[in-house]
Here is the input.
Amino acid sequence: MIQYALKCSNGHGFDSWFQSADAYEKLAKAGMVSCAECGCTSVEKAIMTPRVRTGRKAAAQLPQSAPGSSAAAPQVEIERVLKELRAKIEANSDYVGRDFTREARKIHLGEAPERPIYGEAKLEDAKALIDDGVPVVPLPFVPSRKTN
Here is the structure.
């Protein structure tokens, strides 16, 4: 897994994880990487600060939060954004459950109508879809199991 700092053409910055550098390139070329804030698909890598772990002694010297500040504030914002993303995906996509791999492949091959879908897939099946050029992206949450 690799984490990239990204920015969209509207100036929003965000981070995202990818299986590999090649996976990022494939998804970006397919227009499957979008801004977490505005949904824009014109996204590029931003300059990142490398994370270097130097040991326990250095960790003990990290600055502490100022009194009265909330270290939980970024976490609350992340949870809010993820909740909004989930609602948007669930409102605008068809849940196909465990048939995700089969349905994504059928859509890619033109054997099923093109539409946004989400569901569940085994890791090796998701990798096979990406290797075959099927534009898929992992969701940052576990889909709700819907019943018909």
Remarks:
- The longest strand covers residues 2-8.
